[in-house]
């Protein structure tokens, strides 16, 4: 019954609430996902097929080209690093579509900027700045983005153990035209760690709540994390609850629907009454 009710809600509210805000969230989250997915796949391929190149690798980053390809590049450890390996993916990220380039080359101007703001972000997070929190069995994932004049690095906290998904402890750093830090912001004030692996009972939904300081809607980093991990969790829907809204993420279709919390509460109240009548 609840699934039928939710389906009705999706139809009624999908085009009515926060259309502009959700479009902006989805557009930015897609950029994050494309970058991080390229980095995931590129790293896997490098480790599996080019292990000898790992020793000469000083780091990596990913970006989307003007042609729409998602490129993961690995650079060496020189003082002025060069790209030694790159992997290019289409939107499917399927292994059979990857293009590999193993010719060492200098960085393009875009790549130099992405490299520099990523390095600056790493330095900042490992300084004595109390904003940035570090946890055992977790690493920071740095995602540099450049859109027009906007330069930024999103930082996600990623688990080192399988079967775990992490929300929160994420940050946004913006940079000026000279690649110097302009602003820094914590996107969530806490961290939520969920174990989705090795369960005897299948879990089809997940949920966390947002305080006012985080915002009323699901965050860009939440959506990116769900796009990356939902295929492995078995979840059908994921919910982010706030005082005024409920953000509903449809895992199978990568769709975001936002409804008012009052409407959600009425549906839950109705469902509770129906359950009592049985």
TrEMBL record:
Species of origin reads Flavobacterium suaedae
Keywords (A to Z) from UniProt: Signal
| Taxonomic lineage from the root | Bacteria, Pseudomonadati, Bacteroidota, Flavobacteriia, Flavobacteriales
- Signal sequence coordinates: 1-19
This protein's name: Uncharacterized protein
